[in-house]
Amino acid sequence: MINSDNDRLTSWNNGLTKQSIIDFLNSTVEDGSNYIKPEDRIATFDNDGTLWVEQPIPVQADFIFQALLKSSLKDPSLANQQPYKAIIEKDNKYLSLILEQQPDAIMDLERAIARQWSGTTPNEFEYEVKKFLTTAKHLKFNVNYTDMIYKPMLELFDLLKSYKYRIFICSGGGRDFMRVIAEETWGIHKENVIGTAPEYEYQNGTLKRTKKIIGGISLGPGKVEHIFASTGRLPVIAAGNADGDIEMLDSAKYKLLLSHDDHEREYAYNDGAQKALNNAKDKDYTVISIKNDWKKIF
Amino acid sequence: MINSDNDRLTSWNNGLTKQSIIDFLNSTVEDGSNYIKPEDRIATFDNDGTLWVEQPIPVQADFIFQALLKSSLKDPSLANQQPYKAIIEKDNKYLSLILEQQPDAIMDLERAIARQWSGTTPNEFEYEVKKFLTTAKHLKFNVNYTDMIYKPMLELFDLLKSYKYRIFICSGGGRDFMRVIAEETWGIHKENVIGTAPEYEYQNGTLKRTKKIIGGISLGPGKVEHIFASTGRLPVIAAGNADGDIEMLDSAKYKLLLSHDDHEREYAYNDGAQKALNNAKDKDYTVISIKNDWKKIF
To answer: Within an 8 Å CB–CB cutoff, is residue A178 touching chain B?
Structure first.
């Protein structure tokens, strides 16, 4: 068992972290107190910063900002409103309020998102996302975003599947954005993607986005609520990298916290993850160090 | 192919309906204009009246009415309020308003449901449902409700799975009630069960139901909205038996409408299904006649 598991995690360095994952998985399929019935074997993963690079800004923030920028060029009356103004002026101080989930900034952003995409059909939105993903490049690495998915995590997906775990992605980001890439890049069906989502209305044979968000933001306790609503369960295994993942991690039996500590090959930062990192020992999080645990990142 | 498909549908009579299902499925996996990529192969089924008997009242209505009756015995002040009063007095006139989705009656029912189950944890609710299902008997057949699931439909599930379709149940009824039986009786994971659902709040490590319904009632256009929200797709195949299924059927490529026309072995009725049955020809619904198409029902 352990040999073939090692074969699957080829981008991982041998060590305590890798061994801990393999040991836990083994214990859930063998007789004993850790045994998990096959139907209960679900694993949930955060997306931004857990499955792909989230610095200098999360991929979806880039997508949204680019779309809003285009709209402000078409409709100059927007240029004096937030967040358009900050996007046009590259006002990083304001933009970081959004990224830090400051309520007023989020309210402005949500209004702009509603303006931008309400009335959109699923196909129209998918087309926009695909176009963005084939053209946008990462600032530091100058590659497409989908080339910045962490290879070790994809190997972990394969390992989990070999143990008959069903994998769900649960992100604070937009569900429908992620669903566009889920099958091709993660090998995970769209229905296994959970995230913040707009309401749709079905009228005259067509689904169209409304201005509303349905079921709240999928962050913090919202992640657990979204996971239960989608799956009817809490996860056996959960993986995240930020404070917004704490409740999801705590709801799982086995908790993986990714630490961004590799300035050279990726980024080194703990903004927005300090609480999670501080809690790691008390709460029995298995911390994955990108620097030490990953032989290859991409 | 067709021989082994026949072997799977053993409770179905040979004839146009059975052949139509097999032919359609074959056409979706063979080269040609009907071909469906594996990731797109999803099928959605209504529950009450499509997967099990819904007469004289739907199973969940029995569950809810029994629970509310018990509460009214504990708290006599409820006895003069609706729907408690009607349940105590077996006032079928009022109760049928609920079953026909009359807005005022539904509002009373929703208030009673919120009173009954808000604050409940998933485990507590599951325990109640299991207890009900092991004790309650059907009025006419005097068997447990789970013994009244249509065998031909379970065979169709197996056939669909052999064509690599992923099956979702999409009911107007309560998602969490159905999830209790999904794995054991349908062989379908909880996450593939879609329905009307309460909001949950995650606090202090515990999920508890609130008084709110999330995402609206899963009926009519709401079924399509729920299916898209859960799966990111519209169905290739949809099966229903009532007017509340029309939008779901119309959103699918292949539409199965179950007709309850067997007074002897089940029930013969078309209340709440007249529009669907009238539309069948124009809208190319494949009508399944229980009387003619099913050799065995249970």
So the answer is: no
